[in-house]
Amino acid sequence: MESVLSELEGTLVKNPDPFSYFMLVAFEASSIFRFALLLLLWPVIRLLESFGQRDAGLKLMIFVATAGVPISEIEAVARAVLPKFYFDDIDMDAWKVFSSYGKRIVVTKTPRIMVERFVKEHLRADDVIGSELLVNRFGWATGFIKDDFDSISNRIAELLGDEQPSLGLGKKQYSGSLFLHLCKEQSHPPLITTNKKHDHQFVRPLPVIFHDGRLAKRPTPSTALLILLWTPLGILLATIRIAVGLLLPMKAIPRIAPVFGGKVIVKGKPPPPASASNSGVLFVCTHRTLMDPVVLSAVLHRSIPAVTYSISRLTELLSPIPTVRLTRIRDIDAEKIKQQLEKGDLVVCPEGTTCREPFLLRFSKLFAELTDRIVPVALNYRVGFFHATTARGWKALDPIFFFMNPRPIYEVTFLNQLPVEATCSSGKSPHDVANYVQRILAATLGFECTNFTRKDKYRVLAGNDGIVSQTSNAERLEKLVRGFKQVVGTCKPFIH
């Protein structure tokens, strides 16, 4: 079987500088203070590189980004955050060559824990060889690596044995001493694929559908500086926007939003309010952020209750619209929705959770069983600095992060009410109706339908089924206090 060895940075991904990925680890696994410290040291790192001490600069990045961080948090960031940014930077020409070989191995000086998930799942590599973080007995990273970078070459030799790889891909000035000399042939970026073999066997990398983290842009030094400078102003602006939204009537919000930098784009014709002769309309929406039903109510100039599955009590308390909390017990939830529709209109997001990428998760069929007055609504949003959703963090902060963006934009597209022949009244199954609504909403937004569910998302990003436990926050606080006590305990000999 023909095999290929490829460097990650500068080859399979275009950017040879891993600085932004360590910035992501610093921000998402630790805090904005570590994020700021690493940015402050960026000139030092560049100075070391200019004097030929690239490895020293990399070690400094590793230390500042990971020292004292629980290894479980670094693993979570590597699983839920980094793959999205790596994927956006893939060099498709290099991937085309890499994917055409039977055995694929990726080599990097970045800690293996940061890249392994992306490399194996999305680039379909068989093995990844990188540096290894040292972890103390409490499960916290020390910031140092095992056996320096020289051990990478030894591990490559151990993995290959007597086999000589067919091809080595990498930037010669960075990786030649690591593995290129072990290969029969060598290729260096930029790669131009003229071999028809590569075109015939080309399969696109596995897309990133689920990802987490608050930063919407790659934190390059310039972007990171903008984020740090904007954050205090963004918090102030978010406070003002939320206060104005709570104080003003719904119909005034779309008009006042541009004054504070926001924008709501409305397409299509919404239905009139429910009357005494008609039961309420069920607005079936795509789910992009927790703000979806609030924005819909603002566009319709009236407060419309929204079905909620698993949001924090604080979010419910601050919500400017009524919420109908479901239990996930089918019969009870169906009765709740029916009762609400008898009173008036209702908003439901049958995906059950948000999705950031241009994909729609599988629609629950429950809504199709309960009414024939279904109006699909395609919702989408655009932000600059911060994502307004999270699976691992504090969900109550989602609206704050949304309003911290300089110019948050929402797009609301009303589709026509489903004709009778497209509903269960005509004999269609609820499953068929739900799939039909999913397809027309996906087509409106230019998205792709999937069979993934809420549980799939949370198992990938958070390692749970996505149900908010009332004790989860207390447990998280207890864990934090316990970890702090452990650190203090290790420091006692030095304090005394």
TrEMBL record:
Annotated TM spans: 20-45, 224-248
* Domain of life assignment: Eukaryota
**InterPro entries reported for this sequence:** HAD_RAM2/GPAT1-8, Plipid/glycerol_acylTrfase
The Swiss-Prot or TrEMBL record annotates one GO molecular function as: acyltransferase activity
UniProt KW Phosphoprotein keyword = no
Output the Gene Ontology cellular-component terms. membrane
Tell me how this protein sits in the membrane: Multi-pass membrane protein
Keywords attached to this Swiss-Prot or TrEMBL record, sorted alphabetically, are:
Acyltransferase, Membrane, Transferase, Transmembrane, Transmembrane helix
The cellular location(s) given in this protein's UniProt record come to:
Membrane
Pfam families recorded for this chain?
Acyltransferase (PF01553), HAD_RAM2_N (PF23270)
Domain Phospholipid/glycerol acyltransferase as annotated: residue spans? 281-382
| Name of the featured protein | Phospholipid/glycerol acyltransferase domain-containing protein
Q: Which organism is it from?
A: Cinchona calisaya
